[in-house]
Amino acid sequence: MTAADPLAALTRRFAALDPLLPTAQDPPHGRFMTSRLPDGTRVRAVLTDTRADPATAQALWSALRVWELHPLLPDGVPSGPALHALIEKWRPVVRTTQEDSSATVTWPSRDAEAARVLLDHGFTPLCVLAVRDVMPVDRVETVDVIVRAATENDLDDLVRLALAETAYSALVGGTVLRPEAEQIKRETIGTHLGQGDLVLVAERGGVPVGLAECWLNESVPGSWAETRLPHGRWGYVNCLSVVPDARGGGVGRALMSAAHRELRTMGAERMFLYYNPPNPLSSVFWARQGYRPLWTIWEIRPASALR
After folding, report:
1. Alpha helices of 29-78 — where are they, by DSSP H?
2. Distance (Å, rounded) from C-alpha 227 to C-alpha 204?
3. Tens of pLDDT, residues 30-86
4. Which of 46, 55, 118, 218 is surrounded by the most beta carbons within 10 Å?
């Protein structure tokens, strides 16, 4: 990589912001945008326009049409003015988008200067990718909760528990309650059970009251994970759900204690997950579990609301 290499410059920027950020990777294919700062400096980005099938899992946490900006900022340029210039160039592109749409930017959580500009343009920090950088032994005592591996016989209860999380997340995050939600959850959970992923169920008095759906994710060259995480074997928490009348009683802690233990046994070196900062439950719970934000997904719905 040379000094003029935009990925090298972005990698240096990331390293200065947060030592856990990975090496910058090529953005996906899209439309190149260039903007000029008042001092004449050029800043660039790639703009992608993707569409989701409403019958797929992606549609439960995403608008059906997603415009995403992938900034490629050079050395020595403050992120605030650079992002402002790029968003000004972006706004006319999405101005007429009227459908189920969003405008998004994924950017390192510790870049406060960027956060200020994104807020000023109407973005909301709807989601973060959070990491648990160490894998200590969790010690949780919950005498009235039993956590066990789920089986295909639990599928109806698992779907019910997953939909409880979906309904709550739709109030406080980017989740969308779509007519296909129950069928999507049934198919995806059934797939994870069938392929041996870690699916745990918590019972209180013999009644299922919580779910943890997890699996291993390898960040290796050429993988999607490489764009967000340093290389290595990561444990991933896809869904943690506790029924409303059992929340606050230690069910979630018991589930995650078991999940961390099992994933460590399976070879996970570190953990990651997504949560919604506006969620008053998860934003507190995950910090207490040792997770902290690495990337923030800033979003506007619909995309035409970009200001």
Report:
1. none
2. 40
3. 999 999 999 999 999 999 999 999 999 999 999 999 999 999 999 999 999 999 999
4. 118
User: Smallest Cα–Cα separation from 305: which of 176, 123, 174?
Assistant: 123
Tokens matching residue 203: 């019972």
Examine domains 6-128+298-305 and 146-268 and report if their fold is the same: yes
Domain 146-268: give its CATH architecture.
Answer: 3-Layer(aba) Sandwich (3.40)
The domains of the chain are located at 6-128+298-305, 146-268
What's the rounded Cα separation, in Å, for the pair 48 and 104? 10
How far is it, in rounded angstroms, from Cα 2 to Cα 201?
Answer: 51
Half-sphere exposure of 126 (CA within 13 A, CB side): 23
Q: What is the reported pTM?
A: 0.94
pLDDT at 271 exceeding the cut of 90: yes
- Fold of the domain spanning 6-128+298-305: Aminopeptidase (3.40.630)
Write out the two tokens for 89. Answer: 């160039």
